[in-house]
Specification:
Blueprint lengths: L1 H5 L3 H12 L4 H8 L3 H29 L6
Helix pairs in contact: 2-4, 3-4
Length: 71
């Protein structure tokens, strides 16, 4: 998971880390970054989507290389 987070675009990594790792509220994250709450929500969504895409790609690779492990 750490490598997936480090693989996030730097512009999205800070949003994800502050909100989901450091557990700041959306409002606190907005204050720290000097942005509006809607801007934080938008960028956090993009960060989470990037992580989901990476996880999906990883799982697909695992299924292709070890098909019996998923039966």
């Amino acid at each position: 998971m750490d490598s997936a987070i480090q693989g996030l675009e730097p512009s999205y990594r800070s949003f994800f880390v502050l909100r989901d790792i450091d557990e700041l509220s959306t409002e606190e994250t907005a204050d720290v970054l000097g942005l509006t709450v809607p801007a934080v929500k938008s960028r956090l969504l993009r960060a989470r989507l990037q992580l989901r895409e990476r996880a999906d790609a990883f799982l697909q690779t695992q299924r292709e290389t070890t098909p019996l492990a998923y039966m």
